[in-house]
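<context>
A single protein, sequence plus fold
<entry> Chain with its tokenised backbone below
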Amino acid sequence: MNSKLNFLINMSLMRKIKTKWFAIANIILALIVICAVNIDTIISKFGGDFEKATKIYVVDNTSISFDIFKNSLTSGELYNLLDITGKEFEVLKYDKDIEHVKNNIKEYGDSIFVEFNNDEKTYIRALVLSQNFIDTTDYQLITGAINNTKSTIAIQNSDISLEELNEIYSKAEIERVILDETKKSEEESMQMIMVSVFPILILPFFMLTVFLIQMIGAEVNDEKSTRGVEIIISNVSPKTHFFAKVIAGNLFVIIQGLLLVLFFGAGLLIRKFIGGAGLVGGIGSQVTSVIDSILKSSIGDKLIIIIPITLLLMLITFVAYALLAGILASMTTNTEDFQQLQTPLIIVLLIGYYLAIMAGMFNGSLFIRI
């Protein structure tokens, strides 16, 4: 029986792998993944520039705002307060008035102009001027720097000493205390993982599960329509045939998942070879920050247990959906009927996908955890 099972598994697996469409699909998939990892470099070749600093010209009619504004915008303190990754700004002092800017704004392209004026009630007034729309993150940082400039000027005008000023702007010491003994700090770290890491891992896992369901259903119905199943059943038991389909299908999606990891690794290797910077939009620094936070937290020591359990749960999920897909496929006579019958299964899978993404928002719910 084992020899027949192995033969059927090998035959089913080779039918999927030793095809030109498997090779073509993975070549295309490899190109897509590699290009996605290096998307900023590709765009830069066609005129885009992710590393180009945003120029900000300051018209300072107060004579004291420029240095404070420049320091606020380039020191990096605002990035932590606003939870924004680092942005590159080139802050320059503009020696002409704002009317000259309005008349010649087209000459400065995407540059941004900020004008500071004195105000008796609010200390300063600011005008932000640009030819085009300003990126939301850039505008948020600029307004934050303007407000910080106003606060600094207000404090300076209040005759506060330099030492007191430094104490005001120093970071507060925060001590975290959880009174409920049933709540552990690991749960806070786990919530961070659920919100940041899991959505990235779940998407390819979800796609592979959908692919597994459709693949098993299509193969079973194909054997039915070609009468191939009658020849197989006449030589092996239905149970052996069924398990061969499930095992072969799971082996195939595992191989495909490993290929996806290989493609992503190749993309990172190419990125390093061509000298690419951090991932576009600060994603690289965000991922690094999350990884560092996890490793420094108490949950970091438990990753050696969490990772194998997660992989085991993924494997159990593949097997469970493969069994359901095989059962549903055996109840239908053609691919069209299976497509209709698998709809409830896909809906359950889709609900699980969205619940997994939102799991961090439903702390303590046993249903969500399951």
User: Anything to note?
Assistant: Strands lie at 54-60, 89-93, 112-119, 123-130. The chain is about 65% helix and 10% strand.
